[in-house]
Amino acid sequence: MNETASLYDNLLEEHDRLAPVIGMTPAGPWANLRESAWKDFQALQFPTTKEEDWKYTNIIPFLQPHYHLAGRNGVQLKATDILNLEIPDLEGWHIVLVNGVLHPELSRLPDPGEIQVCTLAEAADLPAFREHFGKYLDTTKYHFAALNTALAENGLFIEVKKNARIGAPVLITHLFTGSAPLIIQPRNLYILQPCSEVSLVENFVSLFLDEDILINAATEMYLGEGSTADHYRIQDGSLHQITINHTQVTQADSSLYNNHTYCINGRFIRNNTHVAIDAEHAETHLYGLYLTSGDQLVDNHTFVDHRKPNSRSNEWYKGVLKDQSSGVFNGKIFVRPDAQKTNAFQENNNILIGALASINSKPELEIFADDVKCSHGSTTGQLDEEAAFYLRTRGIGAATANSLLIHAFAYDVTEKIRLEPLKHYINDLIDSKLS
Amino acid sequence: MLSIRNLKVNIGEREILKGVNLTVKAGEVHAIMGPNGSGKSTLASVLAGRENFAVTGGEVQLDNKDLLDLSPEDRAREGVFMAFQYPVEIPGVSNVNFLKTAINEIRAYRGLPVLEAREFLKMVKDKQKLVDFDAKLANRSVNEGFSGGEKKRNEIFQLAMLQPRLAILDETDSGLDIDALKIVAAGVNKLRLPGNAFVIITHYQRLLEYIIPDYVHVLYDGRIVKSGGKELALELEEKGYDWLKAEQGSVATTA
User: Fold this and answer.
1) How far apart are CA B48 and CA B46, in angstroms?
2) Where do the H-state alpha helices sit in A63-173?
3) A405 contacts in B (CB within 8 Å)?
């Protein structure tokens, strides 16, 4: 029996059961979107390796039929449970979501005059919600984005108000917990109004998780004119976590978007990080680091879509892969005919440790304008044994020597972290991952 | 301090060292000279613990401890230091952080507490001055973008910081102009103490004009074929190595 078909069949059944529960009624929020996305998902179903976008990542074995939609599955956590989820010395706001649901009683929410934070359902009548929600994700192309749009229960809404410059970082802890095989579908909308500025630190972690869960997250983010976002994402889950994360960023003129993605733990991670630079004089930086070991599979698909002239994008992803783990990097840069004077740079470097680790690295440049500067590079190698020997002859143990070299390799990426406590936290994560 | 007895080493099938004997006592400076391909650098590498060599016979003891049984890091922690002929560039690892890590791992091995940041920085400053090493270089990534001379001077700076009991200098003079050579030699001379020893491996006598050795040995075809005082170096400079080759050839025929 085809296992995918059976999870798919389960979803068809659950859809009918859940529709009224999650407000999939004609009067519910985003009802029309849900309906068309559901049709899209039924047309697309789950992807197989026959599709170019999934050629190197076979997700089928991870889509077991035992998963069920969470369906307003209430989880009770105490404030003490989440104490360890703070990032030491990172002083700022803290938004806590449990299985995709905002928990204000566990959070330290910012001043709503500067940043509005609420659930998507609560936001449904806000002008910003109506202007942006569902406008940027293409559910006709992306299987999981379609499934998320159709069946997401709720999610997080953040609106940074016009001209608001938020000095303190906003930590968003996405906590996953549970003792049943759930499908959890966080759905988020982050909006930066013109000339606003914010640092968002999304930390994906798990607590008391003793069953496999399938996380299918989708985030839309809009950067208004002249706004700046530092967007950090740390994926540090458990081996029970199967994560699919689709992020669609859309930039307006003169905005600056910095994305920093750290894939540390989790059985399976597939990130689609898409940036539409629908803007002139905008700037985009995508930095990524994936560290994999054991049986991990981490797949980063990025897509930078230059739609208008005079913008810049810069991308640097690095990976260290150990044991029998595997990685995929697919970096697409699309320069449309109108996007003259585009400057786009992309680099992907990998280190394989051991004979069984593997990486598929694929730059994908499609350039339809003639006056542009685009470059890309991809390298895969091993740790420099001569350098390790040199360090060891100075009394540094083999494990520390390797750790120093890997930190050095990752340095181009980690040095871009502008929040010192966060840099410290991530360097510690890298250390504990390597030891 | 160091005792090498009948050391035999292969690279692959080829025998490079064919029975080397050498005894070095505390406070001594030994020079090992010899033509290209005689096995000088192999000797240095084997002592430091490089892994692509097969020791097929003999033993090496450092203060009665079997050195060949130890990992490269444990040899360093026991007090062995090798200045590389070709120091490695390590982008992204700062010189200072690297030395702090090294010193603290060595201290931990010896049961000593971590060196406090202030003490460490004072030591960096003092040793920089002692061996005339540019402070700017100390804060850069290890050897990255350094000139040949700067790399060699960094080796001597590390030597000063780690304070080993036995320092092996592998062709430290190669690629140095006379000014750099003098600075390197002056650094080494300041680091000579009654409790430590140096083994200086070199092709030319030049370095030995500035670092006066107590003993000179000639390594030829995998064996030490001649030992003497510092005047032996001058003799080699004058006559080259050919007369040795002839002598060895005749020994071989008479044997």
Assistant:
1) 5
2) 120-123, 127-132, 143-151
3) 90, 93
Backbone angles phi, psi at A121, to 5 degrees: -60, -40
DSSP letter at B71 equals -
pLDDT tier at A24, thresholds 50, 70, 90: low
d(CA B181, CA B183): 5
Using an 8 Å Cβ cutoff, are A333 and A373 in contact? no
A372/B87 Cα distance (integer angstroms): 41
List the one residue out of A272, A220, A208, A211 whose CA is nearest residue A245: A272
What is the distance between the alpha carbons of residues A198 and A217, in angstroms, rounded to a whole number?
21
**Using 50, 70 and 90 to split pLDDT, how confident is the model at A3?**
very low
Q: Cα(B155)–Cα(B136) distance, rounded to whole angstroms?
A: 15
For A238, residues 6+ apart whose C-beta sits below 8 A from its C-beta are A206, A209, A265, A266
Amino acid identity of residue B248, one-letter, is Q
Q: Is B108 on the interface with A (CB under 8 A)?
A: no
**pLDDT in the model for residue B87:** 95
Q: Please, which pLDDT band fits residue B252 given cuts at 50, 70 and 90? A: very low
* CA distance, residue B208 to nearest chain A CA (Å): 25
**Are the beta carbons of A396 and B158 separated by less than 8 Å?**
no
Angle at B14 (CA atoms; ends B13, B15), nearest 5 degrees: 120
Taking contacts as CB-CB distances below 8 angstroms, the residues of chain B near A404 are: 93, 98, 101
Residues of B in contact with A407 (CB under 8 A): 92-93
| Strand arrangement of the beta sheet that strand B65-66 belongs to | B14-24, B2-11, B54-62, B65-66
Q: What's the number of CA atoms in the CB half-sphere (13 Å) around residue A370?
A: 0
State the pTM of this model: 0.86
Q: Rounded to a whole number, what is the distance in Å from the CA of B113 to chain A's nearest CA?
A: 16
Tally of residues, chain A: 435
Contacts of B101 in chain A (CB under 8 A): 396, 400, 404
pLDDT at residue B255 greater than cutoff 50: no
Q: How far is A396 from chain B (nearest CA, A)?
A: 5
ipTM score of complex: 0.94
Contact A251, A277 (CB under 8 A): yes
| Nearest by Cα to A213 from A98, A385, A368, A334 | A98
CA dist B82 and A392 (Å) reads 11
* Distance in Å, alpha carbon of A416 to nearest chain B alpha carbon: 13
Find the closest chain A residue to B48 by CA distance.
A393
In three-state secondary structure terms, A14 is helix
Amino acid at B131: V
DSSP A162-206: TT-B--S-EEEEEEEEESS-EEE--EEEEEE-TT-EEEEEEEEEE
CB A218 within 8 A of CB A188: yes
**CB-closest option in B49, B88, B101 to A387:** B88
CB contact under 8 A, B93 and A408: yes
